[in-house]
Structure formats: C-alpha cells, structure tokens
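Review form for a predicted model. The reviewer records the input and the model, then writes brief findings.
Reviewer: anonymous (R2)
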Amino acid sequence: MSEAGVEPWTGLCISATLPFSFRPDAKPPTPDEIAAADATNLQTLVVDASLGESRRGLDAAELDTNRQSDLERLESKVDVMLGMLARLAARDRPPGEPCPVRLFARGIEWRAMGAAPRAGISGAVLLQVNPAFAQVLTLSGMVAGQRQGAEGTWVQFRFEGVGERVVELLERLIFRRHRRQVAGSHGPASPAG
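Model under review:
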C-alpha cells in the first residue's frame, strides 16, 4: 500500500499502448543512479508538458505581427531540433515494443506478453510517453503483484525512489491526457475560448 492506504494503480491513469520494457535489477540502484534517473525523468516530463502547450489561446491583438512571426520561426526551429533529438534518442535507447499499459502517478500496470515477473522483484520500467519526443522515462520500483483481466495477466509495479516532483509531473501528464480524452469523446470543441 502507498500513501493513505491507497494502491498506486487506482484513480486517473493513462491507458494506452506505449513503447515499454521492464528491466529487472541485478543489484539495487545506487543513490546517484536514482538521482540521475530522477533528473532525466523530470527533464522528460517538463519537455513533454511544453510540447502540449500552444499559443492558440493568445489573442491576435496581444502579439504584434513581427513578434508573432519571430515566435513562429523560433517554434519551427525548436520543432526541427526536437525531431533530430528524437531520432537520435530512438536509435541509441530503444524503449521496447509497444505494450498495453496503465500509467498512474505512483505505479504502472502492464499486460504480460510472456512470463510475468513475480512479486518482490525490483527493477525499472522504461516508458516512452510521447511519440513526438523519444526520451524514455526510467521509473524504478518493485513488482507488487499481478491481476487477471479479460485481456490476460497484468503486472502491477509500484514506483520506489521516484522524486515527489516527478510524481507531481506524472499527475499533471495523466490529468492532461485524461482531459483531452474526455474532450475528444464530446466531439469538436467550440471556437469560443
């Protein structure tokens, strides 16, 4: 059980098929390795959040034509750089095959595609949350158990050693994706803002 007796795989989640792999630990990660993974995860989540933001909400009167053109040129250059980085990262650090997952702020479930790791095994999950940005989240923890679903066996993994700021950004990511999913299910948004 995690905070306040709530399991990490309850509440809002991202339910999707994402590039994923599980890497069991031969030995527990050192504090330096945990801190390095946390810093990379933080950077990845910040970039993912910024990729989701847009200037569509800005009123045209708020930006003069020159500033708007400058921002558009800068944005296109950043898009090109992110695309190049994504291709390099994908070549150097493949996250794994697409797998059905349910990502929560403090844990993850994935559908076992073969032999499922047993409860108590420590390791890390590697997960690519944004196809436009190939950087992988590396979230350490422990296999907490399994559950049987209509689709097969789901492995339940509790995050351990993941910093509170990363957990907060995971919560925001999950909320944004959930909000988009709900908005998409209600049809096209009205142009009024």
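Findings: The first strand starts at residue 14 and ends at 24.
Further findings: Residues 8-185 form one domain.
Recommendation: see findings above.
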